[in-house]
Amino acid sequence: MLEMNPFKSIADVVRFPSKAPLTGIEISQRWLGWARVARHKGSYFLADYSLEELSPEGVQASMLGSNMVIPPVVEQKIASILSNDQAKIKKIYLLIPDNVVKVVLLDNLQRLPHREGETVKLIQWKLKKTLPFRIEEAMIGFQPMVSRDGSPKLLAAIIKRDVRAQFERLFEPWGVVPGVVIPSSFGLVNFCHWSIPRGHNDSSESMVVNFSEAYISMVIFRGEELIFYRTKELGAGFSGKSILQIALRELNSSYIYYKERLGGNGLKMVYVGGISPRLTELKSQIQENFDLQVETINPWGAMKLDEGVSIDKGELSRLAATIGLLVRG
């Protein structure tokens, strides 16, 4: 099953020994990010990290395993990380591209099944005709939720089994098992929930944007309730300027849907994050084209640096999804 739980502690899914460092890797189309986080006296420390640019072709990722291409350079960079004797990595948290996972909100449900198997069957029945592959080939993760009116709904994530396997095989030569595997945007959501204080009755609406240049994901919350999730691929072979324009167009269409179909009251804040080095450009473009407040998701200030670790704010912001996945543990 695809682990996913952006609203509770990741520790509910998998627990590590208290002295073991938490290690996370994000594999994106053009970048590989790695972070090792230690905890001491209630504080988190960035103990080690790297941001590695891949070849221009990069990882060609899609929901269909037959279309997946993971170039040898990815294996080489992961080998370099895992061969570090000091790290002593046995398990990792793994972030994979949003566009290989179908995330769906199922609402208008009369009730939620009491058993996990029944819930999986319900999701299979609901999504059977909407997937680009056979539902029998899918791994399904889900989380029950409750709307503000008290009605039940489900957050479901579906990935083709052999797509996940292709990512996991990168770690097999080193005897390392990805303990948790989730879409990249959930790592950003985790970080926002951990680092941004909210009042108990805060019903303001906000959006989390995950930008990788290969895709853009938009997640909207009404208070603590997730009301919207959408990932759109941005296309290959476009210039940097064109990619930003396409991203803005997709963000605009999502914002219109939120206002017209979900009764949006206006976003209090848009939080922009992702492994792309162009987050500052995207933030500026959103500010110029929308009458919205925008912040870059950045662990600076919330995350201490271990002795001997040096990193600038820009690089640290690009590790926010990985760090968000780790600190929620």
Describe the 3D structure.
This protein has 329 residues and is an alpha/beta fold. It has a domain at 10-200 and 298-327: Nucleotidyltransferase, domain 5 (2-Layer Sandwich). The protein has 8 helices and 14 strands. The protein has a 6-stranded mixed beta sheet with strand order 8-4-1-2-3-14, sandwiched between helices. The chain is globular, with a radius of gyration of 19 Å. The two termini are 19 Å apart. 40% of the residues are buried. Residues 4-19 have low confidence and may be disordered.
Q: pLDDT below 50 for ≥5 consecutive residues: which ranges?
A: 4-19
Cα radius of gyration in angstroms: 19 Å
Note the total helix count.
Answer: 8
SS elements, strand count: 14
Percent of residues in beta strands: 25-35%
CATH architecture tag of the domain at 10-200 and 298-327: 2-Layer Sandwich
Derived structural class: alpha/beta
Which key terms come to mind for this protein?
alpha/beta, five-stranded mixed β-sheet, Nucleotidyltransferase, domain 5, globular, single chain, 14 strands
Fold blueprint:
Layout: E1 22-27, E2 31-40, E3 43-53, H1 72-82, E4 91-96, E5 102-106, H2 116-127, E6 138-146, E7 152-160, H3 161-168, E8 177-183, H4 184-195, E9 205-211, E10 215-222, E11 225-233, H5 240-261, E12 267-273, H6 279-289, E13 294-296, E14 304-305, H7 313-317, H8 320-327
Parallel strand pairs: 1-4, 3-14, 4-8, 9-12, 12-13
Antiparallel strand pairs: 1-2, 2-3, 5-7, 6-7, 9-10, 10-11
Helix pairs in contact: 4-8
